[in-house]
Design brief:
alpha/beta; pyruvate-formate lyase- activating enzyme; Arc Repressor Mutant, subunit A; 2 domains; nine-stranded mixed beta sheet; three-stranded antiparallel beta sheet
């Protein structure tokens, strides 16, 4: 495994989309094309499956130096109301495009720190969105939260609005690691908000842990995982830290690569965590999630309805996902579009009644086929191409690129399928890269991606 780690640990995308964001551009899609795509997707899917909403709430009171999210650091809570007004104005603009009442299957509040906002403003946001929409029968509303600032009032307010799942950013419990990444919170704080969530009635609590952080050791990650085991959250996201200081700037320059666990140690942190989670009764979901057998994410994996998008792994797919808020990404299946990445620019455009996108991508027929293959691999560790609709002109070249991984015992290439073995799962991003025709035709000439393992 050591030589394989050295061989395949190369820069590569995380494949929350295909094509990946570096291959989008400001002139690849205009607002008319984007809205036409939204209208088409809405008409095809709203009645059958509903739509999803991702709402980006970007404010944080302090900078977590490991974080790669688009955020604004401030302690001024006067920023809340103007921002929510802008999000509601953007929603109004999309309502006009829909031309009918949207049926919402998913809402996810991400950030930033959604619980930076006070409960009254969160209530206003969701109530006014839902005043112009309906819930589907099997809706799922979720939000990300910070253990330090999440109150029982936050939990009760969002629960009463239909939220039954939440996710707490834990990252690591080791004091040195916490100090280095400027994310200091105690086990007692995490336990308190987890217990409160269950008292209120939340049916799925998730904890986010990160491996590969500066100063992490096998001993420190063991302690963090054992503390997590005491609380038994329904889901665990166990992410690989992406060290990209050339993109994220000063935040990730507070420590050096010398402080990070090297290839073999970093992978051993994951393998230990995976082994322990499986011992505790969790099932592995995709490449970086674990869930208890009773959780909806596990059921969706077994039912082959697992999906992956900019919110990570989700228990169901909707053709149309609208991203509201600064830097949010929307997905109509046929196109991607990203909103303006500054708070001021976003608020100005949204309040003027504009759809505030600044770049995106219209998927070609080839893109749509490749996207399906990459989703299959990321969600099910297998893809098939017996159906002519799943074939593309460069398929044989793709299979040739994968032969070395087959020789290394990581995958099986059948007559009309590719299957990733258990031993090959750490290299799942490398498998997807063999399908990534945009990357193959035009490799970046600067550092863009994090390491794959």
């Amino acid at each position: 495994m050591k030589s394989l780690l050295q061989k395949y640990n190369i820069p590569g995308p995380r494949y929350t989309s295909y094509p990946t964001v570096p291959y989008w551009s400001e002139d690849a899609i205009n607002k008319t094309q984007w809205l036409d795509s939204v209208a088409k997707s809405f008409s095809e899917s709203n009645d059958a499956e509903g739509i999803s909403l991702y709402i980006h709430l970007p404010f944080c009171e302090s900078m977590c130096t490991f974080c790669g999210c688009h955020k604004r650091i401030t302690k001024r809570h006067s920023v809340e109301s103007p921002y929510i007004d802008a999000v509601l104005k953007e929603w109004d603009s999309y309502i006009k495009v829909f031309g009918a009442t949207p049926r919402i299957k998913e809402i996810h509040l991400g950030g930033g720190t959604p619980t930076f906002f006070n409960p009254e403003n969160l209530n206003k946001l969701i109530e006014q969105i839902m005043s112009k929409a309906e819930k589907t029968e099997n809706y799922e509303f979720s939000f990300e939260a910070h253990p330090q600032n999440t109150t029982k009032e936050h939990l009760k307010t969002l629960y009463d609005l239909g939220f039954k799942r939440n996710s707490f950013g834990v990252q690591d419990y080791d004091p040195l690691v916490q100090k280095t990444i400027n994310r200091v919170q105690s086990y007692e704080q995490v336990k308190a908000v987890t217990d409160m969530s269950r008292e209120v009635g939340y049916t799925s609590v998730s904890h986010d842990l990160v491996f590969g952080l500066p100063h992490q050791t096998l001993e420190s990650i063991t302690d963090s995982i054992e503390k997590t085991a005491r609380l038994m959250p329904e889901r665990i996201a166990f992410y690989s830290y992406a060290h990209v200081p050339w993109i994220k700037g000063l935040g990730q320059r507070g420590y050096s690569e010398a402080d990070l666990p090297k290839d073999e140690l970093k992978r051993s942190l994951y393998e230990f965590g995976k082994k322990r989670f499986l011992e505790l009764g969790y099932e592995e979901i995709g490449m970086d999630h674990f869930a208890l057998p009773t959780d909806g994410l596990t059921r969706s994996m077994h039912e082959k309805t697992l999906h992956r998008n900019f919110m990570g792994y989700t228990s169901g797919k909707t053709k149309l996902m609208i991203g509201l808020g600064m830097s949010s990404i929307s997905d109509s299946w046929y196109s991607f579009a990203q909103n303006t990445k500054t708070v001021e620019g976003y608020e100005r455009q949204a309040m003027a009644g504009e759809i505030p996108i600044f770049r995106g991508h219209i998927l070609s027929d080839e893109d749509l086929v490749i996207r399906k293959h990459i989703l299959n691999i990321m969600c099910h560790f297998r893809t098939d191409f017996a159906d002519p609709k799943m074939q593309f002109p460069e398929l044989q070249d793709t299979l040739l690129r994968l032969r070395e991984m087959e020789d290394d015992g990581l995958i099986e290439i059948g007559k009309d399928y590719i299957k990733v073995f258990e031993i090959g799962r750490p290299f799942i991003r490398n498998v997807c890269m063999a399908f990534d025709l945009h990357l193959i035709r035009k490799a970046p000439n600067t550092r863009v991606f994090s390491m794959t393992i």
